[in-house]
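Recall the central idea of this unit: under ordinary conditions, the amino acid sequence of a chain determines the structure it adopts. In this exercise we apply that idea directly, starting from the sequence alone.
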Amino acid sequence: MPSSHLIDPELLPVLNAYPPMPEWSAEALAMVRAGRAEQLAALPPPPPLPVIVETLNIPGPAGHVRVLAYRPAEATGSLPAVLHIHGGGYIFGFPEMMDAPNRILAHELGCAVYSVDYRLAPETPAPGALEDCYAVLRWLSRNAGAQNINPARIGVKGESAGGGLAAALALLARDRGEVQLAFQHLMYPMIDDRTCTASQPHPLTGQYIWRHQDNLFGWTCLLGHAPGKPDVSPYAAAARAENLEGLPPSYIGAGALDLFLEENLDYARRLTRAGVPVELHVYPGAFHAFDVIGPSRLAATALRDSTEALRRALHG
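Accordingly, the structure predicted from this sequence is:
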């Protein structure tokens, strides 16, 4: 690979141990989904932390939306809250993939975390997943008292496709005017379908974990048509939004070898021009999902940066 010499040396064994994505088809997607469930079943038990975890079923646009809710066991008073959206290219995944990190987050930062099991593409194209997430956000806002959360300290967090949904949710919340988010926390967000059709793609990104062909398949499933067309909604691809004013303070992190690097950098630049406070981190030698697929010093650095930014956003 042209960028192999740029990979952080500690990440090489992690990368080599990670199973590659298949050549995509409906059958391959079913296998990936089943494989993720098998990987989850093989994981060690979550850390023994004093955190209460419960499953909620919240009314949504197509029945109920399942949510995993985390809360410090000894919490008193109202807590700040994170609405978390998992990754998976819009086509696979479930909240349990981030169970351990969400338990740690609730414990270390003294916050409530609500992780959404949104509907997946291609069975549910855009805006189905976003509307699921919005239903949970609106429910949190309206039931803040009953949930013992601070309605002025609700933010949204996501990684990869979850970061894309988080960014789109921030736009939708701003435009509908029912809920005011305190922050958006985006880790290598998947926000621009035009990356699939760029005439001069970055020559050194998108070669590992989530590749160009994976991105094309994911976006095609979400949109229900080929990406790159002129009329794609910003509620599907947040980078399509023409106006970013009024969005909440934003955190964006990405690896220098991540396929989403340039779309993330451009979104951060545009947010700053719209007067939105932005904290931006680019990690040299890092590919997509470097922080969650295996241990390394670079992953630890990214986790520390992310945690401290969330601490400030949640508690001021």
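The mean pLDDT is 97.
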